[in-house]
Amino acid sequence: MDWLQNQTVRELLLLLFLGAISSIVYQVVRRYVIKLLHKFFLKTRIRWDQILIEEGVLQSAALLIPVFIMAQGLPFLEVSASFAALLLRLWTLVIAVITFHRLLNVVVAVYNTFPIAQRVSIKGYVQVVQIAVIVFAAVLGISILVGQPPWAILGGLGALSAVLILVFQDTILGFVAGIQLTMNDQIRVGDWIEMPTYGADGFVEEVALHTVKVRNWDKSMSTIPTHKLVGDSFKNWRFMFESGGRRIKRSIMIDQTSVKFMDEKMLERLWKIQLLQPYLEQRTREIEEFNRKHNIDTSSLANGRHMTNLGTFRAYLTAYLRSHPKVHQEMVIMVRQLQPTPEGLPMEIYCFTNDVAWVNYESIQADIFDHILAVIPEFELRVFQKPSSHDLVRAASTLAKLVYKEEQERMT
User: Fold this and answer.
1) Is 344 left (phi over 0), alpha (psi -120 to 50) or beta?
2) What element of type H or E holds 212?
3) Does 277 share its domain with 188?
4) Domain end call among 180, 213, 243
5) Are 226 and 174 in contact (CB under 8 A)?
6) What domain range includes position 333?
7) pTM for this one?
8) Is residue 61 part of a domain?
9) Does one domain contain both 172 and 187?
10) Considering its fold, how many domains does the chain have in total?
11) Per-residue DSSP letters for 221-253?
12) Residue 253's closest CA among 317, 321, 340, 363?
């Protein structure tokens, strides 16, 4: 047993013994103590204690137990005392950085449970603090290894400032962009944004230091560099949601050859439409008064003023929208004609729904245009539509019937 008289061997056996004790104690704490604490935290009403377990703060902090146990053996070491103390200091520094990193994640998770997190995200700022802590810990670790104070190490890094700025260029840009986005309230978690350059069209899920994550409508994920939201253009639909109204701006094409003056028969039929009665009554009175005042010869429709089916249809659409329960009555409601095109005369519907949910909005818009397309024949108007193969076949069939009929008449 002479080998036991060797100091190095004795110290190695002591370190192995302390290492075994440390491992056993750590496993007991991690598997039983922390597990019991987690069960207890689940029964409490507060949320942050559960987040401590979920983010692994207690698990990483428990690694300090082996450090404490191993430190108890330092007074008994001679040969390896300085080396063991160096390793323990470095191990303590690593554990402290990991624990602090996870603790900051807890702060972000707890902050996100408050309503203000939807308006102001702090994840970018927390990531800056985490990076600063890692850099400082790296400097401190180097100072421990070389035996110099950290301030001397930092002073030596001054010459590397240009290199550090180049390395952390994206971090600096992201940090500045995050401040600008927050100060100007340009983007929040939960906003619906569109940025076609990056294929983003959906809701913002995360605003971080370097990137902004957007969950698109097809459930894919787009990642946008944070600083690009300041330098490039993007559309934020949040203000539409906050206004309570979602715009409808769509046109139907009217066949211009179907526009004409209204005759007595059409006027009598349209009088039965309740929404039109106030307009027809007022318009008829104005026209009769104007024609009488200016001695207009009404035997020709080219003289004086007369109602047209298109103008009456436009008045009907305005009255219809103003009476629609799903149209926002405090926002702009307008029916207007646009510049005629070879495809017809565009009649544009411009209004806002009072329901901003996408599915409901599309349903309301579809119902409005279903009604418009169905009611157009009442005004003896036609919707312009380019001929389809069915139209050509029907026209050819009609022409063939006419030719056949003429041939039969000629033969008889």
Assistant:
1) left
2) strand 211-216
3) no
4) 243
5) yes
6) 247-379
7) 0.59
8) yes
9) yes
10) 3
11) EEEEETTHHHHS--EE-HHHHHHT-EEEEEEEE
12) 340
DSSP string, 128-146: HHHHHHHHHHHHHHHHHHH
**406 occurs within a structural domain:** no
Those residues whose C-beta lies under 8 Å from the C-beta of residue 279, and which sit 6 or more positions away, are 312, 315, 316, 319
Looking at the fold, whether 70 and 184 belong to one and the same domain comes out as: no
Contacts of 186 (CB under 8 A, 6+ apart): 180, 229, 236
Both 281 and 318 in a single domain? yes
pLDDT digits (tens, 9 = 90+) for 309-333: 999 999 999 999 999 999 999 999 9
- Other CB atoms closer than 10 Å to residue 364's CB: what's the count? 20
In a domain, 161, yes or no: yes
Whether residue 400 is contained in a domain is answered as: no
Residue keyed to tokens 């009604």: 371
Q: What is the pLDDT of residue 411?
A: 76
Please say which residue of 212, 243, 274 terminates a domain.
243
Q: How many helices (H) and strands (E) does the chain have?
A: 17, 8
Of the chain, the end-to-end C-alpha distance in Å amounts to 138
Question: Which residues lie closer than 8 Å to 398 by C-beta, 6 or more apart?
Answer: none
Instruction: Report the candidate in 203, 200, 209, 206 with the shortest Cα–Cα distance to residue 178.
Output: 209
